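INTERNAL AUDIT FORM
Audit reference: QA-55
Scope: verify that the stored structure record matches its stored sequence.
Auditor: D.O.
Record contents follow.
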Amino acid sequence: MNKKPNKWLAAILSLVSPPIGMLYVSQLAWAGIYFVAGFAVALLALVYGRQIPFGVVVLGFNVICAAHAYRMAGKYPADAARPAYSPWYGLLAAYAALFIVVFGFRSFLFEPFRMPSGSMRPSIEVGAHFVVQKWGYGHYGTYDVLPFQRPISAEMRRGDVYVFDYPEQPSVQFVKRLIGLPGDKIEYRNKQLTINGQAVAQRKVGTYSEQSAASGARHLEQLEENIDGRTYSVALNDDIKMDFPQDLSFPQREMCVYKADTVSCEVPPGHYYFMGDSRDNSRDSRYWGFVAEPSIVGRVVSVFN
């Protein structure tokens, strides 16, 4: 193939995918460099995503590559042969391979998420990015595609934070802290958590200032809890009194007993009980019940607040 690469097509391809743009202009080494650099940029965007929007970082990176590809295409000798990976079918194969690598990484190893709400404050702030370990939890898919489903082989541990399919709308994924394993007896009375008859120790560590667009700044009580050796902070709003509705309905509702300020549940086999760390600002298992094992997506291993 001897046709000189088109400069504008090179720039457009690079805007969509920097490695593909470099393959089009016959720069295999640069394609590899931009592939590795893309992962580094994604990692930096996760770490510093609250200071610089993720989209801005990615767009800036792709624009730099587009300018580079445009320049390389302009300098390409008109009579020089081009390698087999430069035609459209070679680029299509490369793009398919790239997609398979990214899809496989997100499906089976690690997947990034962004916190949409304040239900996990102070542990995970609104807008924070976090990374979820997928391997061992059987929910192997991403981008709303779930090609593989296997039983959980990893240990489910109380006190860890997990992502799961929301029972009332499985296409939506929630992130909460695991409180109860199958067979556990959970009680939440007057803002005190009890597991299998043992009250979870609470220690006041200060005040948590929560910013809300609707209500402005609120100062909440911040407590430290410890479950099975895992220590974390929860936020309580003294202005909100627990008042559970009596007409809550969800699968295996008979496993729970509700009173005005108390909920007590026995976790059914093959299910789990989750709660948010912002205890007065979280719709969780206290309201919509249990999470079935096949709905567990993975465990949160890193948080970038």
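Auditor finding: record pair retrieved intact. The helical segments are 7-16, 18-24, 28-47, 54-75, 88-109, 285-288.
Action required: none
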